[in-house]
Amino acid sequence: xxxxxxxxxxxxxxxxxxxxxxxxxLSVPDPENLGVGRDVPHGxxxxxxxxxxxxxxxxxxRVENPxxxxxxxxxxxxxxxxxxxxxxxxxxxPTLRTELHPKTRAMPRDETVDASINxxxxxxxxxxxxxVSVLTNGPSDKFSDGLFGQGVYMAxxxxxxxxxxxxxxxxxxxxxxxxxxxxxHGVQHPQMPVYYLILCRVVMGVPVSTRDGQxxxxxxxxxxxxxxxxxxIGGTSTFYHSLVAEAGQGAQYTLHRHREFLQYHQNRxxxxxxxxxxxxxxxxxxxAAAV
Length: 291
Prior knowledge:
Blueprint: E1 13-17, E2 53-64, H1 66-88, E3 119-125, H2 128-137, E4 152-154, H3 158-161, H4 176-182, E5 195-203, E6 207-210, E7 223-225, E8 229-230, E9 242-245, E10 260-263, E11 269-284, E12 287-290
Parallel strand pairs: 6-9
Antiparallel strand pairs: 1-2, 2-11, 3-5, 4-10, 5-11, 7-8, 9-10, 11-12
């Protein structure tokens, strides 16, 4: 369903799409946790737990990057082949389900994913200054060094990814290149604070789950090379394809509110859509302030 238009010097092109396909992706079950997290900057009026917060989708774009898509398809085929091999060795492959699953039903019919290899849609938060690079090169595992190593961090809940975004306040300035891509062909910048998420296609393959970031449910190490490469799938020489960091209460959990999904091979991720949204705080009387 791509337009097939030339991607240009940047290697990608974006095309405005109806927001009603994606509005549900920004609904969160726990709005009281919006703005709560160690990565929310101090002094930000959004920071802290208080009522009346919401995320409102302003604009959505489909991303067409032929080179990244070719790499992604090749990586997807390689994971599919590896899954067939490990299944022949008697390995059971769990099926991943996320909070985004029911919310993606309104998306275009052509946007199907392959559940047999745990291909998912996941959200990735980024700063506007980095967005052109991400759309050109894909989300990079080289720039992250979080609680679970050097991978690309993604989530099923916009409440989580919102912590890693920063505002784009007005058209032009230092973001002129980004705006030249997004706000063209009749799409206008809202001239008020807007934030960006990327809706990614991700091949999770055979995931390993962890609570503490170091061991799996059986107590074995999840790492072959700490923070860089996951351990091998039991009884095979194939590395786990991805990591699911579980959330829960208690000292054994590193995360307490939201699961995180990590991929340590960026060619298994394709940035499919850009979502621009507003952070709103209800001021009563039907009025909301954007911050």
